Description:
Elements: H1 14-21, H2 23-48, H3 51-57, E1 71-75, E2 78-82, E3 86-88, E4 90-93, E5 98-100, E6 106-109, E7 112-114, H4 117-135, E8 140-141, E9 150-151, E10 154-158, E11 162-164, E12 167-171, E13 180-184, E14 188-190, E15 195-199, E16 207-211, E17 215-217, E18 222-229, E19 233-235, E20 240-247, E21 252-255, E22 258-260, E23 271-274, E24 278-283, E25 286-291, E26 295-300, E27 303-308, E28 313-319, E29 323-328, H5 363-395
Parallel strand pairs: 1-4, 1-20, 2-5, 2-21, 3-6, 3-22, 4-7, 8-10, 9-12, 10-13, 11-14, 12-15, 13-16, 14-17, 16-18, 17-19, 18-20, 19-21, 20-22
Antiparallel strand pairs: 23-28, 24-25, 25-26, 26-27, 28-29
Amino acid sequence: MSDSPSPKISSTRMPALRSVLHPEKFVRTKIVIGALVVAVIVFVVAGTFDPRTASTAGATPPVGLGSAAPFAVLAGTTITNTGPTVIRGDLGLYPGTAITGFPPGIQATGVTDDTDAVASLAKNDATTAFLDAAGRTPDTVVGPDLGGQTLVPGVYSGSSSMAITGTLTLDAQGDPNAVFIFQAGSTLITASNSVVALENGAQACNIFWEVGSSLTLGTTSSFSGTVFSLTSSTLNTGATVAGRIIALNGAVTLDDNLITVPTCAAVLPTTTTTVAATTTSTAVGGTTTSTAGGTTTTTTGGSTSTSIVVGAVTTTTSTPGGTTTTALGSGTTPTTGSGGSPSTIPLGAPQTGLGGTVGLGVWPDLFIALGAFIVAAFAGLFLFEVRRRNQDMSSGPRDSSRET
């Protein structure tokens, strides 16, 4: 049995085949394919990138308070009060000698732990929190007076004393979990009528002051955050605090003050519903009816709000107490509650000016991928041309009859 002849390539196909297999054209083909691969990779990565999570990936974690969390005032030696001070939180002393001035001071909420085991544990946890705050790596070294500044979340350090004259604004930039930590090398002193103002979601529960010696709050000043002073804390007449006053080794002196333990507002989960025609969902205290392409009517505890529905995807967030906020797909949803105020725009969403959001879809990712393809292709072709020219220069003139 004879072997069958091997197949032969038609002479009419040879020029095309030689054109494809030509070394220079083959390298160019590989460059284009490589650029396409780079573009696909960039598109996939860009599609999975979420600037909202990226912005918080390196966020400063809060200082853990442990059992010291419920205490409005915690001192190491004495707690002394003058006038009708109001405390909303626990009072604690360890290992001190006396708590005086209640009455006329009032503890509106909480309990008093005077040199007992609860106060001892809270004191230990407060010391741990102090060391935690003091050990954080500072993002920014600040001058002695913080007044008149607007600061974003982070760790701020002062080598010696800190002061607040006028208004210090803390801007959370839309992140309710944003943390501010201040490290004062020695004293922290606020001027009379000074204010620590909170903006764009900043919360007093996420503000911490580590003071190397003593704290002094000026008359009728308004202060926010938890203060760990290594020695004493003095609040002058009329000073108010949304936070905690903790003097680890010294006394706390009060004079007609208001101190309230802060609580962090919960960030509630969001549920997404695809609307085919009409969707009815139950909210706390009322019923929300959504119609795709029409309107959304929210009945909450006897009040009604109406919002325009654009698109077919409805995102509904329910909060305790019966408030329902609705935002839809990539469209806009101007929503007003019973008081007529616009709903809060979700973190990271582009603002429309109507209380809603605008979805950009995949177009930014496509443009990024296209740009990556063009850059990679031109870079590859440029490098190939440089290499070819170098080879030409080193090998001398080529025989043009061999190129075909």
